[in-house]
Amino acid sequence: MLDWQEMRADAAALPDDVDRGRLVHGYAVYVVSALAAFRDLAGERGHWVEVQPRPDPADEIAVADKVYVLALPPDDAHLRALERRGWLAVHGGGAWSAVLTFGARPTIDDARRELTSTLAREGAWIADRCEHNTLGDVGRLALEPDALARQRAVRGECRTRVARIHVALLAYCSALEAEDPERARVCRTGARAVGWMCALVGDEATLDFRTAATHARMREDMRAIAAAAAAGDDPEPAFAALLERYLGETRGSLIRARRESLPPLRPGPQATTSDDAPEAAP
User: Fold this and answer.
1) pLDDT band at 53 (very low <50, low <70, confident <90, very high)
2) Is residue 270 assigned to a domain?
3) How far is CA 31 from CA 139, 165, 176, 203, in A?
4) How would you write the chain as a 3-class SS string?
5) What is the pLDDT of residue 55?
6) What total of structural domains would you count in the chain?
7) Which of 48, 74, 158, 242 is the S-S candidate for 221 at Cβ 3.0 to 4.6 Å?
8) 140-144, 145-149, 267-271: which has the minimum mean pLDDT?
9) In the structure, what pLDDT confidence band is assigned to residue 194 with cuts at 50, 70 and 90?
10) 203 close to 224: Cβ distance less than 8 angstroms
11) Do the domain assignments include residue 243?
12) How confident is the model at residue 132 (pLDDT cuts 50, 70, 90)?
């Protein structure tokens, strides 16, 4: 279920201050548990996420104070473009996942533009081409030599596209921290939800966690988000609604906890949320 070769490579790329307690954030709850097989580290959430304290002290830690293991290749062109702008540093990783830290805090306007353009570009691709992450025809996988490799490549591409949104959103959260710490905290919660979405669309550990109907609805929602972003409209309401629907539809889950929506991408009053709304990510 887990790509141990990938996790070993990510663990080797973690910076030295991880050994002194710097918090590691994985895009999915099982990532830091896998990394702990190779490094002595402090991981955010982790596999037993259901027993985290409330409030969780990790929720108050700034974006730049953590180390991230995210689901896109270290040589991804969009990731490297943000590195050239000084927003983050890539420390290495595996074939499809990268270890990175955030650096200089972008301005709100620059971060908002980056997130909006990323939603327009990657959202359109996801809407058109993201394949349902299901086990599918076991016989075909067994009898066709290239079937499994093709499946991993196609779903891995969708995971990368979602991960680009994840990175852009984290940069936006970092920008918010200087002006509105409360909105930044809510933004970081939303970014954690997008990380779990990366796992749902592309990881073999999450095969069949979503029905075909839920996946199809996500693609249509993403189409609306991409169109709104491309037209210069605020995509935040549609994006928050997507996370509410897609991440709330947990097949077989017994755990539903509080979820907080993303802050608006445009200046304005922050929306309030209910304490008993479902959390976007386990």
Assistant:
1) confident
2) no
3) 30, 19, 26, 11
4) CCCHHHHHHHHHHCCHHHHHCCCEEECCCCHHHHHCCCCCCCECCCCCHHHCCCCCHHHHCCHHHCEEEECCCCCCHHHHHHHHCCCEEEEEECCCCEEEEECCCCCHHHHHHHHHHHHHHHHHHHHHHCCCCCCCCHHHHHHCCCHHHHHHHHHHHHHHHHHHHHHHHHHHHHHHHCCCHHHHHHHHHHHHHHHHHHHHHHCHHHCCCCCHHHHHHHHHHHHHHHHHHHCCCCCHHHHHHHHHHHHHCCCCCCCCCECCCCCCCCCCCCCCCCCCCECCCC
5) 85
6) 1
7) 242
8) 267-271
9) very high
10) no
11) yes
12) very high
Q: What is the pTM (predicted TM-score) of this model? A: 0.89
Give the torsion through C-alpha atoms of 111, 115, 121, 124, to 10 deg: -170
> Is-contact 263 231, C-beta < 8 A?
no
Which structure tokens are listed for 226?
A: 């991409």
Model pLDDT for residues 74-111, shown as the tens digit of each residue: 999 999 999 999 999 999 999 999 999 999 999 999 99
Residue 33 lies in a domain: yes
> pLDDT tens for residues 143-185?
888 998 999 999 999 999 999 999 999 999 999 999 999 999 9
Rounded to an integer, what distance in angstroms lies between the CA atom of residue 184 and that of residue 178?
Answer: 9
* Distance of alpha carbon 214 from alpha carbon 199, whole angstroms: 15
Q: Is residue 85 part of a domain?
A: yes
Q: List, edge to edge, every strand of the sheet that includes 67-70.
A: 24-26, 67-70, 98-102, 88-93
